[in-house]
Amino acid sequence: MQNQIKSLITASKKGNQVAQMQIYDSYCNAIFTVALRYLNNEEDAKDAMQEGFLKAFLNIETYQPKATFGSWLKRIIINQCLDVLKKNQLRFDDVEVSDLQIIDEDNWHFDNTITKQDILYTIDQLSDKYKIVVKLYLVEGYDHEEISEILEIPVKTSRTHLRRGKLKLQELLKVKYNEARY
Q1: What distance in Å separates the CA atoms of residue 45 and residue 34, rounded to the nearest whole number?
Q2: Can you tell me the distance from the alpha carbon of 76 to that of 70, in angstroms, rounded to the nearest whole number?
Q3: Which end of the chain, N or C, is less packed with Cβ atoms under 10 Å?
Q4: Are 135 and 123 in contact (CB under 8 A)?
Q5: Residue 92: inside a domain, yes or no?
Q6: Mean pLDDT across the stretch 91-114?
Q7: Where is the RNA polymerase sigma factor 70 region 4 type domain (predicted)?
Q8: Could you tell me the residue range of the domain that residue 38 belongs to?
Q9: Residue 96 confidence (pLDDT) above 70
């Protein structure tokens, strides 16, 4: 599969539209899922996915195989989704770390009544600025430096938004856990 993708990328760099369609077909479902995670609206996610693929094919010459093509493409799509959110007035404010309250997370346990789907659904209940950072960090696996670069915010703001988002997530999941117990 990886060799096939490499040859499709080489052909795409030469402007081969059939190769581009094959790349699109290989990645569209996964990329749509990523876009939907951020935009929560199928039409917006489809639009962002289309725009992201267009940007990827227009800039495919810049792809370097030091990262997988899927990772490179996913980053483009996430950036496209964030552009949509920014156009909708989402702002990531610089925040002071000094007013952040720290609690002991190690004593927080749930039984298996809380599912992965519950956690993902609960992440979507967070405010947008926390939700985006939590998704980029916990779901997509980006570190704070990468999040800082993607969102154009200081690293400390990324850390603070993640911390606050995780605290709110814990709070919401505790409510869910308590409801499930009774």
Answers
A1: 8
A2: 10
A3: C
A4: yes
A5: no
A6: 46
A7: 117-169
A8: 2-87
A9: no
Total structural domains in the chain?
2
Q: What is the dihedral of CA 154, 90, 28, 134, to 10 degrees?
A: 50
Which tokens in the block code for residue 14?
A: 């030469």
Query: Would you state the structure tokens that stand for residue 46, as one six-digit string?
Result: 């489809």
pTM to 2 decimals? 0.66
Average pLDDT on 146-153 reads 88
For residue 7, which amino acid is it? S
Place of tokens 């939700």: 131
Contact criterion met (CB below 8 Å) for 105 and 170: yes
Which pair of tokens denotes residue 126? 């967070």
Terminal CA-CA length for the chain? 49
Phi and psi torsions of 122, nearest 5°? -70, -35
pLDDT value for 84: 87
Residues 19, 79: one domain? Answer: yes
Averaged confidence pLDDT in the chain: 83
Q: Looking at this protein, which amino acid is placed at residue 162?
A: L
Write out the two tokens for 56.
């990827």
Q: Which of 13-22, 51-60, 93-102, 119-128 has the lowest mean pLDDT?
A: 93-102
Q: Are residues 78 and 29 both part of a single domain?
A: yes
Residues 80-104 have a mean pLDDT of: 58
Residue 74 above 90 pLDDT? yes
Burial class (CB in 10 A: 0-12, 13-18, 19+), 52: buried
